[in-house]
Write a structure and sequence with these properties.
Helices cover about 40% and strands about 30% of the residues. The protein is built from four helices and five strands; from the N terminus they run H-E-E-H-E-E-H-H-E. It has a five-stranded mixed beta sheet with strand order 1-2-3-4-5.
């Protein structure tokens, strides 16, 4: 599965959860995604939904790369950003990190815009 197929997969799955993928680009071995959401901030369940789909895509054949997410409100205001490292996904698959450790790593990258804190 290439990045285009992954983006299509994310778009389809996440829309039903109120997460609307708007743009994507692959630069320097990082897949950048931008999405809009109606919830305030970047709550853990939202991170979990996106990460679950990345994990499922990896299990379906996507070779993980770093993913950097930019989050916006429905009115276009920047909310914050977060990321997942491709190595973390591979380590999770190999049993080198637990799901809890993986979640902690992802949450540690979350940076919120000052106005949303």
């Amino acid at each position: 599965m290439d990045d285009a197929a992954l983006v299509d997969r994310l778009e389809t799955y996440l829309m039903s959860h109120g997460i609307y993928l708007e743009r994507s680009a692959h630069e320097r071995e990082t897949l950048h995604i931008e999405y809009e959401t109606a919830v305030d901030g970047i709550p853990d369940p939202q991170l979990g939904r996106v990460c679950s789909e990345l994990i499922d895509a990896h299990e379906a054949g996507w070779e993980p790369t770093d993913v950097h997410a930019w989050v916006f409100s429905l009115d276009g205001a920047f909310v914050g950003e977060w990321e997942v490292r491709g190595g973390w996904l591979r380590a999770l698959e190999n049993g080198n990190v637990s799901e809890t450790d993986f979640s902690t790593l992802v949450r540690s990258t979350r940076e919120l815009e000052e106005s949303t804190r």
